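User: I've been trying to design a sequence by hand for this structure and keep getting stuck. Would you show me what you'd pick, starting by listing the structure so we're on the same page?

Assistant: Good idea, let's start from the same input. This is the structure you sent:
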């Protein structure tokens, strides 16, 4: 089984985390595949990141956690590659997102999520520091106090609260997540590459 599925749909690339039997827990190879796929899709107008099954990602694979992966720079390489993409990036969260997998979600421009999704990042309990870029991106979305609730108090945030806080941009039934992502992508897919990247640069 391929752990990251790549589907090119015209000017849009869809990347799907594909370990549904393991709740899409990520390994070093999966992270490298996402990073490399995002870089290879630099000419695409839209990238959508989603997961197979009922969970977007449970975070780091338990076996991988016994290696040097918890402190590897590859986490930031993935999120920074997504953030640097000149087109529109959308996280289509088919379910809960946890741990280090949140980094790639925070790096996206937009986030649509299943109504049942939760979000948590238990770095305080696990004894790891979050990846360097994650706290700043989290703070930019929700402010310092809420970022501390997630990173320091280890709270599990419901989809409704994520929407209210600005972490999620839309909620929908799980089976409609990709449809919503496609709707979000329509305007960018109808625009030129330079127009998309120009607006993105202006927003910052």
């Amino acid at each position: 089984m391929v752990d990251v599925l790549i589907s090119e749909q015209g000017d849009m690339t869809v990347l799907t985390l594909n370990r549904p039997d393991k709740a899409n827990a990520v390994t070093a190879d999966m992270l490298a595949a996402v990073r490399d796929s995002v870089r290879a899709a630099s000419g695409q107008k839209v990238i959508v990141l989603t997961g197979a099954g009922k969970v977007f990602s449970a975070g780091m694979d338990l076996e991988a956690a016994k290696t040097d992966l918890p402190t590897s720079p590859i986490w930031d390489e993935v999120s920074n590659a997504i953030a640097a993409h000149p087109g529109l990036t959308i996280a289509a969260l088919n379910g809960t997102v946890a741990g280090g997998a949140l980094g790639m979600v925070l790096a996206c421009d937009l986030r649509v999520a299943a109504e049942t999704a939760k979000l948590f990042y238990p770095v305080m309990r696990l004894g790891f520091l979050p990846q360097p870029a994650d706290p700043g991106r989290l703070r930019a979305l929700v402010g310092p106090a809420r970022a501390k609730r997630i990173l320091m108090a280890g709270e599990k945030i419901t989809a409704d609260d994520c929407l209210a806080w600005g972490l999620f941009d839309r909620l929908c039934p799980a089976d409609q997540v990709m449809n919503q992502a496609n709707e979000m992508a329509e305007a960018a897919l109808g625009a030129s590459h330079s127009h998309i990247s120009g607006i993105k640069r202006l927003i910052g």
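That's my pick for every position. To get oriented when you compare it with your attempt: The two ends are 38 Å apart (CA to CA). The longest helix spans residues 28-40.
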